[in-house]
Structure of 2-amino-3-ketobutyrate CoA ligase:
Amino acid sequence: MSSHTLQKFLTENLEELKGKGLYNVIDPVEGANGPTITIAGRTLINLSSNNYLGLATDSRLINACNEATKKYGVGAGAVRTINGTLDIHVKLEEKLAEFKHTEAAIAYQSGFNCNMAAISAVMDKHDAILSDELNHASIIDGCRLSKAKTIRYNHSDMEDLRAKAKEATSSGLYNKVMVITDGVFSMDGDIAKLPEIVAIAEEFDLITYVDDAHGSGVLGNGAGTVKHFGLSDKVDFQIGTLSKAIGVVGGYVAGRKDLIDWLKVRSRPFLFSTAVTPGAAASCIEAITILMTSTELQTKLWENADYLKKGLKKLGFDIGHSETPITPCIIGEETKTQEFSKRLNEEGVYAKSIVFPTVPQGTGRVRNMPTAAHTKEMLDEALTVYEKVGKEMGII
Ligand code: PMP
């Protein structure tokens, strides 16, 4: 018999969410998450995946995964610090360091886990963290877990960051102060002002932490936002995920060797949770090798992103101020945004709506993620649907 208090809690809260239209219904994808997807038997043009380079279905990664699975089996067998560190995990970490131009790297089970692990391994209740107000949920949770004082600064507002850095470092209240930012902001596609952030960090001796989940594989010839600005030796923590452009699963920190040594003995998900499967590690190594030897996929990604952006803008949609392939179509009102996404779906385009609380109230949007795997024909078809639904709903 289930607890009455739990039952009451679940019924009340689920009903409230459903009543407000905020209960997210999940549609399982029947098959690969490629440039098209099949949901409930219907094949749609997919503009919602983070599979930027199409590597999730690349035969080279699939072969690497199969070979490693044959050799090592499907699971690592133990946590990293017992005997679950397979040589393929070490190879992945060496490859990541090479990819990010750092002394060393440490791999985690996901990007989310990585932020929970890395922030709390270094920061504690005697410290402060300056965090961009639009940083990802995993950064927010990582900061909370650390118990450091989190001070939010206005999005990419360098005057605000500078003033808060000055105040925090001169207050005498904190042992260490860190500045944390996404490299590319996931809901708007704008790039963090890293040269200014690094300059402020140097002025006030801040620890620098950049989560480049959406920049790696996309900017800096694939190496990411930090490399894009030529700041590889100026950022203490370079965080990334292996689930977006790399196409697989996992997360990592790249940085100086002593930092990585510390994370290996003090970050709890490394110590107490089993690593990614050998097959996943092998696929990631293959993906990074591809990224380090060719820019073909990035060139295709940017061509497709430019094409879609120009097309949507020409039709009259508000695509915000994106500087990367992430292309929002800002609709505004929440229910209208959801209706727009639903109509796109009915017409053959899968582009998910993103509304409050993920983005501020009144800035609901449909977020488009063009990839290297889309063809021009697919993008043209999507634009035709956008035009039809946009006109029908009075958005353009
Ligand atoms: N950080 C940022 C900035 C992200 O956008 C995401 C992905 N939603 C993550 C971390 C989490 O990455 P993962 O899906 O690998 O856990």
In short: The first strand starts at residue 36 and ends at 39.
